[in-house]
Amino acid sequence: MSMKNTPLADRARPLGFDDMVGQEHLCGPKGILRRIAESGRLPSMIFHGPPGCGKTTAAGILAEQSGMTMYRLNATTASLSDIKDVAKETTTMFGMGGVLLYLDEIQYFNKKQQQSLLEYLEDGRITLIASTTENPYYYIYDALLSRCSVFAFKHVDAAAIEKRLCQVAASVYGDTVFADGVLHKLAVSAGGDVRRGLTLLEVAASCAEEGENGKTVLLETAESLVPEGFSTNFDRDGDVHYDLLSCLQKSIRGSDPDGAVFYLAKLLEGGDLISPCRRLMVIASEDIGAAYPMAAVIVRACVESAKELGLPEARIPLANAAVMLATAPKSNTAYAAMNEAIEDIHKGLGGEIPEHLRSPLFKGYKYPHEYPGNYVKQDYLPADVRHKKYYRFGDNKTEQAAKAYWEKIKGE
C-alpha cells in the first residue's frame, strides 16, 4: 500500500512516548510503561481501554525501544496457525532479539485459542501484548491473566486531542489554513478517540476550499462532518454502555438529579431508548421501593409514554421519571429482604412448608379476617428459618407509618 493511501492516523502515529497525548499515568515522564521500557525487559501485558486511546501506539513504542521484532495479529481474523507461525520466527534471525506479539481485540479469541498462547509465554519464546476494548476480567481467561500485567488506558480528553491535531496539521497540512474553532470542533467530535480525531482532520483537510490566500478549512465544514445529535464512543453492547447505566442508577440512588439527567441524556443521545427505560423501572423498585411505592407506577407510565413517543420526544417523560426518582425518599428494604431470602434458599433452608399452610387440609390454619384488626399471630416460615427477619422497616415516613400501624395491630 502506498503512503498516499495509508490513513493519516497511521502516518502520524507517534514514534516515542513524548509525542503521545493522554495516558500520562502510563506514558508520561513518570508513567509505568515508560519505566518498563527503560528497564530493558518487557513482561507480557494486557492493554484495556476504549478505541483510539493509544494502545497500539504504546505497544509499537515498547517494541522499538526493547529491540524486539513486533508481529501484529487481530483476534477477529487470526487463527492458531497464525500464532504458531509467529512462534516459528523465534528460531530465525528476525527473532534473535526476541519476538513481541501484539494481539488486538483478544476478547474474540475463545478459551482454546487463548490457552494456546500459554506455552509460548511460559518458555519465553513470545512476549505478548494483548489489547481489548472490553473488561479483561470478564473476557480473558484466568490462566492467561495470571501471566500478564493489566494496564488501563483512558479516553483522551478533547484538549489533548486538539493538541495532537495542531501538531499533525502543522506537519502534514502546512499549506492549509484551519479557521478558528475548526480543530477544537474536530477534537470535541472525536469523543476521546485520537484516531477518530485524525480521521476527521484528514477528511476536513481534503475538503479545504481554495481561495486567494490558499486552501482553508471552514468551521461549517468541520461541523458538517458530525451529524447533529451524533454521540461518539457509545457501544450498546460494551462496557461504556453498562457504565452509563450504572452511573444513571448510582446518581439516582445518591439523590443527585443533575447526574441522573446527564447520564440519561448520554444514553438517549447514543440512540438507546429501551435500556434506560428498563433501568428506570428497576431503580423505582430497588432504590425507592417501599419509601414511595407509587414511584413504580409513575415510572411505568413515563416509560410507556416514552415508547409511544419515540426519540427525541421520549426524553421528556423519561427526564421527569429520572428527576422524580432522584428526589424521592430512598429505601432498599424490600430488595435487601429478597436477597437474604434467596441466600437462605440457596443454602437449602426452608424446604419443608409448615403443615397449616399446606393444601388440601390447611390443618391448624387461622383465617386472619376472623380476628380483630384482621390479624392473628401464627408462623408462616418453615421451621428451620422461623427465627429469621428478612424485612426490616426503613426510616422513611412511609415505612415508619406502616411500622407504627403493625405495632399497634400486633400489640408490640
Keywords summarizing the entry:
48% helix, five-stranded parallel sheet, 8 strands, 412 residues, alpha/beta, flat
Tell me about this structure.
- The chain is an alpha/beta fold.
- The chain is 48% helix and 9% strand.
- The protein contains 20 helices and 8 strands.
- It has helices spanning 8-11, 24-27, 32-39, 55-66, 80-88, 111-115, 118-122, 136-139, 142-145, 158-172, 182-189, 194-206, 219-224, 239-253, 257-269, 274-288, 294-309, 315-327, 333-346, 397-410, and strands at 45-48, 69-74, 99-104, 126-132, 149-152, 176-178, 209-211, 214-217.
- The strands form 2 sheets. A 5-stranded parallel β-sheet has the order 2-3-4-1-5, with helices on both faces. A 3-stranded mixed β-sheet has the order 6-8-7.
- The longest helix has 16 residues, at 294-309.
Fold topology:
Blueprint: H1 8-11, H2 24-27, H3 32-39, E1 45-48, H4 55-66, E2 69-74, H5 80-88, E3 99-104, H6 111-115, H7 118-122, E4 126-132, H8 136-139, H9 142-145, E5 149-152, H10 158-172, E6 176-178, H11 182-189, H12 194-206, E7 209-211, E8 214-217, H13 219-224, H14 239-253, H15 257-269, H16 274-288, H17 294-309, H18 315-327, H19 333-346, H20 397-410
Parallel strand pairs: 1-4, 1-5, 2-3, 3-4, 6-8
Antiparallel strand pairs: 7-8
Helix pairs in contact: 3-4, 10-11, 10-12, 11-12, 14-15, 14-16, 15-18, 16-17, 16-18, 17-18
